[in-house]
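Record filed below.
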Amino acid sequence: MAGKTSDRLKSKREQIMAAWEKRTLAQVSSAGALSSLALRNSLPMYLDHLSEALAKNRKMDFKSVELHDAKAIRIGRLHGTDRAGSSNYGLTEVILEYHLMREVVFEMLEVEAPLNQTERDIVLDSIEQAVNDAAVRFSEVHADIQEKFVNTLTHDLKTPITSAKMNAQLILKRADTCKVSQKYAGSIVSSLDRLTTMIHDLLDVNRVRAGEELTLQFIHCDLDKIFREVTEEMTLVHGERFQVDSEASIQGLWACDGLRRTLENLLDNAAKYSTPDTPISIFLRKLSTAVELKVHNQGPPISEKDQSLLFEQYRRTKSAEVSAKPGWGIGLALVKGVVDAQKGSIHVTSTEGEGTSFIIQLPIANPTSSTDANAQTA
């Protein structure tokens, strides 16, 4: 009997996954942000695992699983790891996914005849064990993220502070020259502004993770002017690598402070991961109903798989991890949050030999229903 149930599970595997996916999209709000492949991830493996247990009439309680399965490859742990890396999922939603899987499995397997008590116990024990593993791993990953985050944060905050200190020392040495003093004083202000921006980014990206739309202040501003100012400030940090290609003044109503921080993040990323000493280009264009910003750099391409992770909070691409360059894994999540709040779009293109481009389009007429659109000028 157990063999027949196992065979029935195998034959209905795709039906079960399709039914589970449909039900999950309807009941788990965060699931809508994932592609079909990312949504399923390790769950097909779970069904294979359950089918094997039914075929061998093997117990799936905690003790049996501990003896039979290596901790590193337990399906629930794989699933918990994946969901912990998403900017949308909470632990409650991870657990709900397994409860929905339990419902679908029983419905599909009992269409023809009820399962016997042993088979029901195997299914229920397997779900319970997978939920426990997923919950534990989800919590472990978040703890690891927080630890790495603090370590990287302290490293990154030292850079603008050190820059401010060095410029202050230069002021002391050249206090007799007014213009020089003003120049270095301005550099101090820029460095401290960058420090303030980092802190604001942390606060805002946590709002994005909580599913909140950023509250931005829309003001009248000149994007060309703002982008050239940001480029000049970033040049102090990364050197003379930035090239601006813009159609002179482009004025309108935008969340200009957010766009300033967006460009800082994109330029900082481009400088970190591009081929050293190659130019980084910033293009600004006015289209018929939108403005387009593109940041392009030369360097190793970002794989299609990694591109799907770029805008996830605390997720870094494999190439970024291998590079050993410090990063918070929040910059691009913040960028997307700013763009989304302005009803814009962002996408990336990256190919061997052509380099990488981040392209943002923002509507010229911005909605003001959830934002402060005071008529200020920047």
In short: Confidence is low (pLDDT under 50) at residues 366-378. The first strand starts at residue 219 and ends at 222. The chain has three domains: 2-145, 150-209, 219-363.
